[in-house]
Amino acid sequence: MSDYRDLWQSLNMDLERHDLLCAALPSLYEEVYLNQPGRPQGMNYFNAVIAEIHGMRVAELAEHRKQGGKVFGTFCVFVPTEIIRAAGGVAIGLCGGSQFWVPDGEKVLPRTVCPLIKASVGAKISRTCPYFESSDMLVGETTCDDKKKAWEILNEYIPTYVMELPQMKREKDRQAWIEEVGIFKGTVEKITGKKIEREHLREAIRVENAKRKALKRLYSFRKNDPVPISGKDALLVTQIAFYDDPQRFVERTEELCSELEERVTSGYGVFKNGAPRIVIAGSPQAIPNWKLHHLIETSGAVVVCEETCTGTRYFEHLVQEEGETLEELLVNLANRYFQINCACFTPNHERVEDILRLVHEYRADGVIHYNLSFCQPYSIEAARVEKALKAKGIPCLRIETDYSEEDIEQIRTRIEAFLEVVR
């Protein structure tokens, strides 16, 4: 990575501790990613993004702010990034996926909070994440009680705006969400000083839809046997989508997809024909949380799809781009996000139906329900998901873990035993 110390210094980061964080990533990335055989050439761009993970994009954000632009840090797939973009702002995904930040999070949060929340809070209060330090405002949401309280803590360090997401999907809840999206638009306009017009929002919708289409195309190639790309690489591309420049990301992902198309035509795969095919369902996996995928794919199976916030929940469903007025486009926007089947909703039968559909579409042999420790919404839904899958004769394994390495061999043993069942 190039020398960005002056930039990090200008962001008031703790450089000494940041050096410790950065020192751990290269060896982890080499073990998990660079040692994979047969990787597509198109992954070289995404390798470079990781190599510069706290550099190139952070420098772009600094230049954006220098020109008077605003940066909004987000944590969840429910934040309508189109509104931020329409107001000339930049949205950056901030979820923390490293054990490095957990001890700092535990200084102000109970231990019995999920590692994602503890790492996110820890990343901010330790001043070791340049994306937090580049943000003018954080945007939280009410998808779980632990997050709601975490926003109160983060607000002591940086302005944190919270969107209220309804917990049911009745018509009156949809109307409330439409109103909430409108209120968010007003907040973003106030922060950026730019009034959003219909054409601004329509163009922002087009850009974000292009990203969703590119990811959907990428995932479509994973339906083949043999698969032309590993689950680890597909996960990495989706994780990077949260913070890369959208237009550049689309160009590079489409290039990768063209290469995958050629691989499918020639029958080239990164796993042998008939390798067990696994769908991951459950909690999100933020960078650098590659633990479960790595264990599965070094045990002889391939991950073909993720029913997670770092998977299909992020890109399924497009926003309808046609609308005669700004208000109509805002309704279209709200309607798209309201289709996401997060575990925060009750009842949530649609999520179970989604998992069954994905198993069919991706020709999966089994499902691993992944649960971050203390992530109650997904933990509670796990039993219902398992019951529905077993009723259809689909094997299911429930894994609950955190970001530490202490349980790696135990999980590997369970996965290997599960794969004996699905083979």
Salient structural properties:
423 residues, alpha/beta, 4-stranded parallel sheet, 8 strands, globular
Largest sheet report:
4 strands, parallel
> What is the succession of H and E elements?
HHHHEHEHHHEHEHHHHEHEHHHEHEH
Distance between the termini: 42 Å
Portion in helices: 40-55%
Radius of gyration: 21 Å
Q: What characteristic shape results from the CA principal axes?
A: globular
Strand content: 5-15%
- Number of separate helices: 19
Runs in which pLDDT lies below 50 for 5 or more consecutive residues are: none
Going across the biggest sheet, name each strand in turn: 2-1-3-4
Please report the total strand number as a whole number: 8
Secondary-structure-based class equals alpha/beta
Oligomer: single chain
Mean pLDDT: 97
Description:
There is one protein chain. The strands form 2 sheets. This protein has a 4-stranded parallel sheet, with helices on both faces. Strands 6-5-7-8 form a 4-stranded parallel sheet, sandwiched between helices. The protein is an alpha/beta fold and 423 residues long. Helix 10 packs across helix 16 (326-338). The protein contains 19 helices and 8 strands. It has helices at 5-10, 15-34, 43-51, 56-66, 81-86, 102-105, 115-125, 130-134, 145-154, 171-192, 198-221, 231-241, 246-266, 291-297, 312-315, 326-338, 349-361, 376-391, 408-422; strands spanning 71-74, 90-93, 137-141, 160-163, 277-282, 302-307, 366-372, 396-401.
Write the layout of secondary structure elements.
Blueprint (H helix, E strand, L loop, with lengths): L4 H6 L4 H20 L8 H9 L4 H11 L4 E4 L6 H6 L3 E4 L8 H4 L9 H11 L4 H5 L2 E5 L3 H10 L5 E4 L7 H22 L5 H24 L9 H11 L4 H21 L10 E6 L8 H7 L4 E6 L4 H4 L10 H13 L10 H13 L4 E7 L3 H16 L4 E6 L6 H15 L1
Parallel strand pairs: 1-2, 1-3, 3-4, 5-6, 5-7, 7-8
Helix pairs in contact: 3-12, 7-9, 10-16, 11-12, 11-13, 11-16, 14-19
